[in-house]
Amino acid sequence: MEKRRLGSIEVSPIGMGCMAFSHGYGEVPQEAYAINAIQRAHEYGCTLFDTAEGYGQQQFYAGHNEQLVGKAVSGFRHEVVVATKFHLGRETVYESDLRTEWLMRQHLEHSLRNLRTDYIDLYYLHRVSRHVPVEAVARVMGDFIREGLIRGWGLSQVTARTLQRAHEVTPVSAVQNIYSMVERDCEAEVLPYTLAEGIGVVPFSPVASGLLSGRVTTATDFSHPDDVRKFVPQLTHQNIEANQPLLDLLGDYAGRKGATMAQIALAWMLRKQPNVVPIPGSRNLDRIMENLGAWDIVLSDAEFVALERAIEGIEIYGHRGIEEYEDGSMSDWHREKTKANKLQTDTEK
């Protein structure tokens, strides 16, 4: 296993998204199971664990997931990279850098307590805000780095233009955007910019909320009140059926490589860009270990080129894209991109 870098921070080629242990995918496992899963992932070689201050809002209090991760990694804290995220809040109005710093410090101190640590390796702004300039956030992040409170910082769900504005103030270590075989907006501008600037890309939902694993079907039940998959456009019954050609392609490669479909989807991503570190999330230990095992699946040049060409020839149905602003409004770039794509959703049928 070759390590990768998020800015100057070295990590395993695949990380672990920990949100599902607190909310988002139906019933959550017992705490002991979740802690064991995180520790087993570390034993296997995973060194990047991703959480957020807000994970836990549905079934548990906000901060639950940070506390869980902090407890799980406490015995090997300095061997791993802990990433967490904060929201400035939709009601926040920019007044000055001092006001922004005060707000961010409150969030940071709360996360440090939750995580049982005196520093955070990678601190993300969870969503940018229309009301607080990203440059102001970048300046405060620079202060936190100089104080030793964080090692690096990042942004989530941003366009290349926003990323550049922030990076020019305080160098960004990583950007965490949605990216997978069915969500490829990042390839146009974000991936080229990050590669040129030495910024890591940490894709969330790299297996498209389970679609690319082949285990999510039209019979899968999303009725639990805390199952976010019911809102994922690729997972409507119509779009699961419409995306079957892509699943067939993955199944064919999986059979030939002695791998699973999810592993092929992740191996494709690792082969595509050297600065990409996906963070698949699961509440199931077997799935977690399966996902991490994707770093041992090697696609040859010929296999990768053939897979890329095949994917390009398949129409994808359902689209989430980069919703940059915290209030859910789309950026001009995303609006233009959305209009240019042929989307298929339940409401359009």
Structure description:
Helix 1 packs parallel to helix 10 (285-292), helix 4 crosses helix 5 (160-167) and helix 8 (244-257) crosses helix 9 (261-272). The chain starts with a strand and ends in a 9-residue tail after the last helix. Helix 1 links the parallel strand 3 (16-17) and strand 4. The model is unreliable at 328-349 (pLDDT under 50). The longest helix has 19 residues, at 97-115. The chain has helices at 31-44, 64-73, 97-115, 134-146, 160-167, 190-197, 237-242, 244-257, 261-272, 285-292, 301-312, 332-340, and strands at 4-6, 9-11, 16-17, 48-50, 81-86, 120-125, 150-156, 174-176, 200-201. It has 12 helices and 9 strands. The strands form 2 sheets. It has a 7-stranded parallel sheet with strand order 3-4-5-6-7-8-9, covered by helices on one side.
Which helices and strands occur, and which strands form pairs?
Layout: E1 4-6, E2 9-11, E3 16-17, H1 31-44, E4 48-50, H2 64-73, E5 81-86, H3 97-115, E6 120-125, H4 134-146, E7 150-156, H5 160-167, E8 174-176, H6 190-197, E9 200-201, H7 237-242, H8 244-257, H9 261-272, H10 285-292, H11 301-312, H12 332-340
Parallel strand pairs: 3-4, 4-5, 5-6, 6-7, 7-8, 8-9
Antiparallel strand pairs: 1-2
Structure characteristics:
349 residues; alpha/beta; 12 helices; 38% helix; 10% strand
